[in-house]
Write a structure and sequence with these properties.
single chain; about 110 residues; mainly alpha; globular
């Protein structure tokens, strides 16, 4: 996949996330934020085949948070995106899935 296609896919996920947020669907917003980050990670993984982080966004994010070769703020963003929240959409810490996703995306798109 070309970088332009990756960026287009990410932007599409953010548009869906914004619509979900407007509709009060925080769960879908988180899903879209994870998928957007997973897309950027997948793009990077294409040139780092030694990293076997899986094919889906959640596995990629879970592996990312454990990888000490990335900056701590990127690992923390991945941790926040993968932390289970309550049915009332309460998190054990302040969270902004879109911002966390953007931290991850900026890092990985810069690295390729």
């Amino acid at each position: 996949m070309k970088k332009e296609e990756v960026v287009e896919t990410i932007e599409k996920e953010f548009r869906i996330a914004a619509e979900a947020q407007t509709a009060g669907n925080d769960g879908m917003m988180r899903v879209c934020a994870r998928r957007a980050a997973g897309t950027a990670i997948g793009y990077w993984l294409a040139t780092h085949r030694e990293k076997n982080w899986g094919a889906d966004a959640m596995n990629r994010l879970k592996n990312l948070q454990l990888d000490g070769s990335v900056p701590p703020q990127v690992q923390e963003a991945a941790r926040r995106l993968t932390t289970k929240i309550t049915e009332q959409f309460r998190s054990p810490f302040p969270t902004d899935p879109i911002s966390d996703s953007r931290i991850i995306i900026e890092f990985f798109l810069r690295e390729v």
